[in-house]
Each structure stands twice: as C-alpha cells, then as structure tokens.
Amino acid sequence: MPDRRVQAAIDNWAPRFVTNGVDFNDFRRTTSRIETWEEWLPAWVETADEHRALAEAATSEVSAGEAYVRAALAYHFAKFVWVVDVDRNHETTRKAIDALCEGLRRLDRSAERIEIPFDGAKLAGNLRGPRDAPLVLLIPGLDSTKEEFFHWEDVFLRRGLATLSLDGPGQGEAGFSLHIRPDYEVAVSAALDALSWPAAVGAVGVSLGGYYAPRAAAGELRIRAVAGVSGPFNFGECWDGLPPLTRETFEHHAGAGSENEARERAHELDLAPVIGDLEQPALLVTGKLDRIIPPEQTERIAHEAPNAAFVVFDDGNHVCNNIPYKYRPLVADWLAERLRDVG
C-alpha cells in the first residue's frame, strides 16, 4: 500500500508524466513497486538507468536518441518534487541534463545548449529549430524543467517555430544557485539579451510558469505574444489548497527557512502590481477540474490583462495534461499566428 505522499504524486501527476513522454507501462511498473516516498527517487532512477542502457546498446542513432530522451524524463520525474536529500536531487538532475543532451545530439541537429550569466550564477536553456523563425520561450513551473519539454517543444517545431526551454531562477540546474524570484522578467531579459534573436519572440508558461510568462511579458516588450496554462494570479492565495509535496518543493526552491516563510514568499508572486502593463496579446488557458491552481486564478489574469482571451476546458485537469490534444494545438497555433503577424 503506497504511503500518502506516493499516492498523492500518482493521483495528481499521472497524466502529466504520460503527456510529456513517459510510457504508461513504465509509469505503472515503476509506481507499483514504490510504497514510501523515500523510495520514489531510487525507483525512477532504476527505470531511467534501464533506458540509458538501451540507449548505449542501440544500433542506430535514432533508437539511441529516443532511449536517451526516455531516460531523461525518468530521471527528471525521479526528483521533480523529491527534496528528501538535496545532494541526490542534484545528482539526478545532472543525469537528466546529460541524458537529454545525448538524446538531442542524436535526434535534432539544430539543438544547442545555451548558458546565460545571471546574478553571479547562470541560467541554462535548450535552443531548437530554425534560427530565423519566430521563437517561443517555454517557461517551466515550480517543479518542471527544460528536460521535461522535449515533446512540448516538438509541438511548436512542427509549426515552423523555434523554441528555447529555459531553466530560470529556482528551476532545474539554475535552482542549484538561484532561488525563485517574483520578477521573472529580469531572467527573461537576460536570456533575450544573450540571444539577440532576429525574429519575433513569444512566451508560454505552464503551472507556476503561467504566472512567470505573463509577468515576463508585462516587463519585457520584446515578448510580442504570451500564453499561460493553469497559472496563478497570486500564488500565495493558492497555498492552503496546494499538495504538501508542492508546498515543500516551493519552500526548498524559494530558499525559505520554514513553511510560514514560504507562504509569505508565495504571496510575493503576485501579478496585481504589473498586470496593467501586459498590453501584448495574451491567451490564458485552464481546466475546470484543476485541483492545484484554482481555475478562477487563471481567469483573473485574463480578466485583468488589457488584451487577453480566456479558454477553460470543462474536462481539463491541472495544465490540462489529461487532454493535451486540445490545449497544445490551441496554444501553439495561437502563438504561431500572432508571432507571424508581427513579423
């Protein structure tokens, strides 16, 4: 019988795993052998190691690349909200980074790792696609990272766009040295300064990234259109309804010393001071069945932004990961149309 935390992870995030590329059979096999939260990371690392071994034994570059991507996803989900042992979390994060780099090297000749000096440390991103096409900045949430976005990137690449998946402050490898900060636009500005992209730039964020992306667009005019999926208007207002694993993860990535301090910092992630500056076209999407970020939070972003559209799927859960075939084409087509319109 899984303990409360294991069961919560399964209940809250199973669709997310599958939507982002974890084989459903892997999900069932791996979670079926986990009874305590302490066992979560080792079990998923074991699954990841199996895929890495398949990659190393593969007889074609494509087969190896696909197996490395599967390994990267399993390493990522081993540690995504697992902060029992920070050293093991960081070690597994590095394994996810390395595996995805190996996968991208074999599957996408356009892929390039980007490192951006920032606040005495560095941000990191994966850049893919044509270098003269409109660029979509993919912004993770609290516990997602660029290593989770391979298949999300493909949705935009198939539409002729380029993508940059970014680990910002408190995210992925950037989180080793940088804590979460409410003014995410400063990180986005640093990334755009480093890239000097020749075409139009848009942004999309998921979950807490659905706060970061509108926040960045409000302060960074080089973002010409923005989308947010299941994002909070004020993260602190969501605090009491968040899963305990999510609250613990925020406390860790915010560098807070207690849950009370974490709650206070969560309230700093508030769009109220900047929402009037978000004049670019904005698309806000959520699911009516979202149990993590109340749909009303995302609706409020759309209601208070000057030029926004709101879409709610009655059958959608958090980030609508149970209906990716609805929200992903919608967001990708909307961004593609607006970025091409502005040239």
Features:
single chain, 15% strand, 12 helices, eight-stranded mixed sheet, 47% helix, de novo design (two linked rop proteins)
The CATH C-level class name of the largest domain:
Alpha Beta
Q: What general form does the structure show?
A: globular
Strand content: 5-15%
Order of helices and strands: HHHHHEEEHEHEHEHHEHEH
- Which topology of the largest domain does CATH recognise? Rossmann fold
In CATH, the homologous superfamily of the largest domain goes by the name: Alpha/Beta hydrolase fold, catalytic domain
Structural class: alpha/beta
User: What's the helical proportion of residues?
Assistant: 40-55%
CATH architecture of the largest domain: 3-Layer(aba) Sandwich
Describe the protein in words.
By secondary structure, the chain is an alpha/beta fold. It folds into 2 domains: 1-107, acylaminoacyl peptidase (de novo design (two linked rop proteins), Up-down Bundle), CATH 1.20.1440.110; 111-343, Rossmann fold (3-Layer(aba) Sandwich). Helices cover 47% and strands 15% of the residues. It is built from 12 helices and 8 strands. It has helices spanning 4-19, 24-32, 40-57, 61-79, 86-107, 150-157, 185-195, 209-219, 244-253, 259-268, 295-304, 324-341; strands at 112-118, 121-128, 135-139, 162-167, 201-206, 223-229, 282-287, 308-313. It has an 8-stranded mixed beta sheet, sandwiched between helices. Helix 7 (185-195) crosses helix 8 (209-219). The protein is globular, with a radius of gyration of 19 Å. The mean pLDDT is 97.
